[in-house]
Design goal:
The chain is of the alpha+beta class. It has nine helices and eleven strands. The protein has two domains: 234 residues, no CATH class; 101 residues, no CATH class. The strands form four sheets. The protein has a four-stranded antiparallel beta sheet, with no helix packed on it. A three-stranded antiparallel beta sheet has the order 6-5-11, with no helix packed on it. A hairpin with a 2-residue loop joins strand 7 and strand 8.
Length: 383
């Protein structure tokens, strides 16, 4: 397939955009332990569905809080990979997330919140709910429990970013050899090996998404982009369902990820728009007296499309992860192994269902992207 040759280029461009825009907005519990209450269950779920500056692999830490607010690790079976910290703070600041290793705690309104601090290049920083702040004279919280300390610009390679890098490597390993074979043997040669697997989905995207929504004459131009977002979203959804390293990253459940993809689709749509598309927006087919109402409505309508793409993918993927974790958390919250008879089968059922959702959400995002592009390039008949 000719389209396969261009996918690696599109993947690279999309990756650069994602790495530049995706924030480190995790909210995770620093000190791990047994889930003993509804609040701890909520913190446990939040920890697993949001981003992090380190990649947890296995185990937990048992800790002891001292009178001075420090936290001693009594025993640790936790295994994790510290990820690179990249800050813009009067220049480039580089470190590793393991540099934030001095645990402290804050008690506010009866709730104990843990944070980690460390000194990098003679400047003290604090990591609170996976966000990095200047420590200054101490970590100060407002009445809602949010830090009021200033923040450096954070461009760290978080768990979600590393998972995206992994998915790009996997896609390149799949597509580059297949493209090389097609280039050598011709696009009409019989597919072999991984080509058989990839061609099924390439033809599916072409015949079920691109051609019906964009049209026979113009669909080929957009096939590399549509194939890229389809495989990129699908693979990241599948990696998020793997409960252990190198999976367990909720990439598609990060609204920054879905927003960047939606913005790219929006830009492709607007720059592809023909004169009929723009005439319909700027000179809608209504009486001129209604232009003052209809023109803003049409413009807002173009902006609601990427918003719908963003929320649809983000909400569906995040909801699936939360439901599975909630079922598993019932056992520990209730402190009764008997609940496993309900929680484990239901969690397994939702996990299997998530395999379908992973594909379905990639299909829907790609189909809607093709539909939006198709409305922008459609040639209207004039009488």
């Amino acid at each position: 397939m000719l389209y396969v040759k261009n996918i690696s280029r599109i993947i690279t461009v999309a990756l650069i955009a994602l790495l530049s825009l995706i924030p480190s907005n995790a909210s995770a519990t620093i000190v791990e332990g047994t889930v003993n209450s509804s609040k701890e269950l909520n913190d446990f779920i939040t920890h697993h569905v949001k981003d992090a500056h380190s990649w947890h692999i296995w185990g937990e830490n048992k800790t002891q809080v001292n009178a001075d607010g420090t936290v001693d690790v009594l025993s640790s079976t936790a295994i994790h990979i510290g990820l690179p910290i990249l800050l813009i703070d009067n220049g480039l600041v580089t470190a590793n997330s393991d540099d934030f290793n001095e645990l402290r705690w804050i008690e506010q309104d009866g709730d104990t919140t843990y944070y980690a601090q460390g000194k990098i290049n003679e400047t003290e920083y604090v990591m609170f709910h996976e966000k990095i702040y200047h420590l200054g004279s101490g970590l100060k919280l407002d009445e809602k429990g949010h830090p009021t300390n200033s923040r450096p610009l954070d461009f760290s390679l978080t768990q979600n970013v590393m998972s995206m890098l992994l998915s790009v490597v996997i896609l390149l390993l799949l597509f580059l050899p297949a493209a090389k074979k097609y280039k050598k043997q011709g696009i009409h040669s019989a597919p072999k090996g991984r080509q058989n697997f990839l061609e099924i989905f390439v033809v599916f995207v072409r015949d079920e998404i691109a051609r019906p929504n964009i049209g026979e004459k113009k669909y080929a131009r957009y096939m590399p982009y549509l194939l890229t977002i389809f495989f990129f979203i699908w693979l990241n959804n599948l990696l998020g369902l793997v409960p252990f390293f190198p999976g367990a990253s909720n990439v598609s459940g990060n609204i920054a990820f879905t927003a960047v993809l939606a913005v790219i689709t929006y830009l492709v749509t607007q720059f592809s728009g023909n004169k009929d598309y723009w005439k319909h927006i700027l000179l809608p087919p209504v009486p001129k007296a209604l232009y003052i109402i209809m023109i803003p409505v049409e413009i807002i309508g173009t902006l609601t499309k990427p918003f719908a793409l963003t929320i649809r993918l983000f909400a569906n993927i995040t909801a699936g992860h939360i439901v599975v974790l909630a079922f598993m958390g019932i056992i520990f919250s209730a402190k009764n192994i008997g609940w496993a008879g309900l929680s484990v089968p239901m969690g397994l059922f939702i996990s299997v269902l998530e395999l379908l959702v992973a594909f379905l959400q990639a299909f829907i995002f790609t189909m809607l992207s093709a539909l939006f592009i198709g409305t922008a390039v459609e040639e209207h008949g004039h009488h």
